[in-house]
Write a structure and sequence with these properties.
6 strands; about 45% helix; binds farnesyl diphosphate; 8 helices; about 250 residues; Undecaprenyl pyrophosphate synthetase; alpha/beta
Length: about 250
């Protein structure tokens, strides 16, 4: 797949991707489903449904381009504020997605993971996710990590709580708290920090997403709505990533 895109993008004047600088972890804020649907005169649900198809498309493309971890922000701890019908619809999507795609993900050696608070999810959503996690746990390819009922501030508050408990029990002293200690308690402890964050739909904010983990990530924004985000956009984002110099506060 990558060769096909290399050629296509070259014709558009986008440089060829270099194989040795593919972002290891890409995190995506999949925004604009509702506006996409509205623009087409469709109900918001149709936007989310089409967004689900984009998840499949981008998973396959990211894998083909050599990405190792792909985190998709599918539902935030704040999304419960939406109308009940929309929340119910969003909670059915993992099930529908996995019913259609799980076998292909297994065949492609993808590991499905979830990052978020499982205890608040409806039983049917949790069952689908846990089945996918369990059936793909021995796979060694791309990690497809769904941020579902995820919120960074809650994650940080829970982390502080956990560390405070360990101090209370005498297991740890305040002086022993390190960045690594904190990272081990985060919901993302199974992942490296994202190298690249993509947000669609023209909004320029982080929306409570991976605030700790994105400290040194490269950020890439596009006006394109998530349902129309294609392999070519992913390619363009990676090409732009490869033009950046990451200094992590040092000098290049
Ligand atoms: C934000 O767009 C998007 C969401 C809150 C949901 C994202 C979910 C998907 C793309 C589908 C997930 C698929 C799986 C397999 C779990 P918005 O609805 O806020 O868009 P708007 O800002 O245009 O209204």
């Amino acid at each position: 797949m990558i060769e096909r895109f290399q050629k296509w993008m070259r014709n558009k004047g986008v440089p060829t991707l270099s194989d040795d600088n593919i972002p290891r972890h890409i995190a995506v804020i999949m925004d604009g489903n509702g506006r996409w649907a509205n623009r087409k005169g469709l109900p918001r649900f149709a936007g989310h449904h089409s967004g689900m198809k984009a998840v499949k498309r981008i998973t396959i493309a990211a894998d083909a381009m050599g990405v190792k971890y792909l985190t998709m922000y599918a539902f935030s701890t704040e999304n419960w504020k939406r109308p009940k019908e929309e929340v119910d619809f969003l909670m059915k999507l993992p099930q529908e997605f996995l019913a259609i795609e799980l076998q292909e993900l297994i065949d492609k050696n993808v590991q499905v993971r979830m990052m978020g608070y499982k205890e608040d999810l409806p039983e049917h959503t949790l069952r689908a996710i846990e089945e996918a996690e369990s059936k793909t746990k021995n796979n060694t390819g791309l990690v497809l990590n769904f941020a579902l009922n995820y919120g960074s501030r809650r994650e940080l508050a829970e982390t502080v709580k956990e560390i405070a408990k360990r101090i209370e029990s005498g297991e740890l002293s305040a002086e022993q708290i390190t960045e690594e200690q904190i990272e081990r308690q985060l919901l993302s402890s199974h992942l490296p920090d994202p190298d690249l964050l993509i947000r669609t739909s023209g909004e320029l904010r982080l929306s409570n997403f991976m605030l700790w983990q994105l400290a040194y990530s490269e950020l890439w924004f596009t006006d394109v709505y998530w349902p129309e985000f294609t392999e070519a956009h992913l390619y363009e984002a990676i090409a732009e990533y490869q033009r950046r110099t990451r200094r992590y506060g040092g000098l290049s």
